[in-house]
C-alpha cells in the first residue's frame, strides 16, 4: 500500500521543521519541543480531575455520573522519555466519552531521570491501587481494561502480564514490544517517517541507562515473555501503522 497523499504532505511539513532530529536533542529539549506543539483539548467530558493513585499522579476521566462504570487504564507513549498527561488529554477525553467507560491516565516517572524499571513499577503501583479503590470513584474493578500507545503499549502489556489484575482486554496501539529492533519493519521503515530507528535507539538508550535491564529482558521486550505468560493474556486488540519501525512488533 502506498502512502496516502495527506500523509505525504504531513511528512513533508514535519521534515521541514527547523528542529534537529530527536536523537540530537537532550531529553529536556525534546520535552520542550513537545510542549511547543501542544494544543489544549476542549472535547466535552462529564468530568476530569487529577488524583493520587497510590503515590503515582494520574488523571481520572468520567463520561457520566453513573456508578459501576468500567475502567480503562491508559498509559501514554513517548519512548519512556517524553509525553505528559496533558499531551494525551484529548485522546483520554474521547476514549471516555465514546466508550462510556471511565479512563485513568497514569503519569509515570520517565527516563533518563528515572530509567527502567521505574516507569513499569509506577504503572504497576497505580493499576493495583485502581483495582483496590475503583468503587471509591464509581468504577467496577471487575471490568478493567488496559490501553497504551507505543511505549505505553509496552507498559500496558507488561502490566497485563505482571499486575495480577484480570483485565477484560488490552488495547495496544503500535506497541514497542521488542527492544532488539531487528524486525523487517525496522529495515524498511527506519527512516523518513514520523518515528525513526535512530529515535528508537535514543529512547531505549535513555530507558536502559540505569543498567538494570537489557534488550532481551522480557520486562523490557514483552514479546519475549514465556509461552506460559503469553497464553494468559486477555483478549487483545493491536493497532499498527504500516509505515512504522514498530509495525512488525504488533
Please give the number of β-strands.
Answer: 7
Distance between the termini: 18 Å
- Choose one word for the global shape: globular
**Uncertain parts:** none
Quickly count the helices: 8
Using only C-alpha atoms, the radius of gyration works out to 18 Å
State the major sheet. 7 strands, mixed
Give the SSE string: HHEEEHEHEHEHHHE
Kindly state the mean pLDDT as a whole number?
Answer: 96
Describe this structure in words.
The chain has helices spanning 5-15, 27-36, 89-99, 118-133, 151-162, 184-189, 197-207, 227-230; strands at residues 47-53, 56-62, 69-75, 102-106, 139-149, 169-173, 236-239. With 250 residues, it is α/β, with parallel strands linked by helices. The protein has one domain: Alpha/Beta hydrolase fold, catalytic domain (Rossmann fold). The chain has a 7-stranded mixed beta sheet with strand order 1-2-4-3-5-6-7, sandwiched between helices. Strand 5, helix 5 (151-162) and strand 6 (169-173) form a beta-alpha-beta unit. The radius of gyration is 18 Å and the shape is globular. The relative contact order is 0.14. The mean pLDDT is 96.
Give the structure's gist in a few sentences.
This protein is of the alpha/beta class. The chain is built from eight helices and seven strands.
Give the helix/strand layout:
Layout: H1 5-15, H2 27-36, E1 47-53, E2 56-62, E3 69-75, H3 89-99, E4 102-106, H4 118-133, E5 139-149, H5 151-162, E6 169-173, H6 184-189, H7 197-207, H8 227-230, E7 236-239
Parallel strand pairs: 3-4, 3-5, 5-6, 6-7
Antiparallel strand pairs: 1-2, 2-4
Helix pairs in contact: 4-5
Amino acid at each position: 500500500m502506498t502512502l496516502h497523499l495527506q500523509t505525504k504532505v504531513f511528512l513533508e511539513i514535519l521534515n521541514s521543521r527547523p528542529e534537529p532530529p530527536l536523537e540530537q536533542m537532550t531529553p529536556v529539549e525534546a520535552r520542550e519541543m513537545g510542549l511547543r506543539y501542544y494544543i489544549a483539548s476542549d472535547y466535552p467530558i462529564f468530568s476530569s480531575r487529577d488524583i493520587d493513585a497510590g503515590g503515582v499522579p494520574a488523571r481520572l476521566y468520567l463520561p457520566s455520573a453513573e456508578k459501576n462504570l468500567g475502567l480503562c487504564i491508559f498509559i501514554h507513549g513517548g519512548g519512556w522519555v517524553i509525553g505528559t498527561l496533558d499531551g494525551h488529554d484529548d485522546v483520554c477525553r474521547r476514549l471516555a466519552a465514546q466508550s462510556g467507560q471511565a479512563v485513568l491516565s497514569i503519569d509515570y516517572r520517565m527516563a533518563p531521570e528515572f530509567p527502567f524499571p521505574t516507569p513499569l513499577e509506577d504503572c504497576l503501583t497505580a493499576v493495583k491501587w485502581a483495582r483496590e479503590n475503583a468503587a471509591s470513584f464509581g468504577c467496577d474493578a471487575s471490568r478493567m481494561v488496559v490501553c497504551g500507545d507505543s511505549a505505553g503499549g509496552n507498559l500496558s502489556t507488561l502490566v497485563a502480564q505482571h499486575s495480577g489484575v484480570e483485565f477484560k482486554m488490552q488495547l495496544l496501539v503500535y506497541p514497542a514490544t521488542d527492544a532488539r529492533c531487528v524486525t523487517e519493519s525496522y529495515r524498511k521503515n527506519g527512516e523518513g517517517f514520523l518515528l525513526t530507528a535512530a529515535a528508537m535507539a535514543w529512547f531505549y538508550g535513555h530507558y536502559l541507562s540505569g543498567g538494570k535491564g537489557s534488550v532481551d529482558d522480557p520486562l523490557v521486550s514483552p514479546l519475549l515473555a514465556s509461552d506460559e505468560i503469553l497464553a494468559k493474556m486477555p483478549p487483545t486488540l493491536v493497532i499498527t501503522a504500516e509505515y512504522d519501525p514498530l509495525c512488525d512488533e504488533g
